[in-house]
Amino acid sequence: MKPIVVLATRNKNKVREILAILAESAIDFKTLDDFPGAPEVIEGADTLEENAAKKAKSAALYCGRWALADDTGLEVDSLGGKPGVLSARYAGPGSSYADNNRKLLAALDGVPHEKRTARFRCAVALASAGGSTVIMEGCLEGFITREPSGSRGFGYDPVFAVAASSADAGRGQGPVRTLAELSPLEKNAVSHRAAALKKIIPYLRRLKAEV
Predict the structure, then answer these.
(1) In contact, 102 and 144? CB cutoff 8 Å
(2) How is residue 205 annotated by DSSP?
(3) Pick the catalytic residue: 71, 77, 99, 157?
(4) DSSP codes, 59-123
(5) Total-model pTM
(6) For the domain 4-210, what is the CATH code?
(7) 157 is annotated as an active-site residue
(8) Exposure string for 24-39, b = 16+ CB within 10 A, e = fewer
(9) Which residue among 10, 67, 97, 142 has its CA within the 20 to 30 Å range from the CA of 173?
(10) What is the pLDDT of residues 138-185, one digit of tens each?
């Protein structure tokens, strides 16, 4: 019997990536869509960690199951770390991915390549119905391109560039592509979300042992 963990998100792009990254975890994952009436959580905290924990705890309490949530932010050095925790709402409430990308590129208009450095940070929280929570973080360094490129991924993927291979990504070597130009397999080998989720796997294995 597999333990059940609720993915505390209705973002189908996130669900797809999480399921792919944790495919070997032997967990029976559900989503909030499997629990009608599950409340929406407003991401109003000051940090990614707080937002992730807030979402995971809310889902765990409502569903009576372990729940997993993440919050991700893009930090651009020349913008003082913005948009950061407001990344999903950078262009305003209800803004689309394209809206956010346009605002970001406009804010960086005229900024030279060497000052367009940025990173994705992802906080992942795993919470029990009883309130216990563990939080892990993953990070991916890169830079912001001058225009969108690629049709894969979501969010800021079309304007965030990294080295194309996982072996070179951390050293800034090798061919450079945006996350939206990488295959799902390539992205999941280097991404901030994958780095955080891989740190959560030992805790998921403990749940399996308890069943």
Answers:
(1) no
(2) H
(3) 71
(4) HHHHHTSEEEEEEEEEEEGGGTT-EETTGGGTTSTT--HHHHHHHHHHHTTT--GGG-EEEEEEE
(5) 0.90
(6) 3.90.950.10
(7) no
(8) ebebebbbbeebeebe
(9) 97
(10) 999 999 999 999 999 999 999 999 965 543 444 445 568 999 999 999
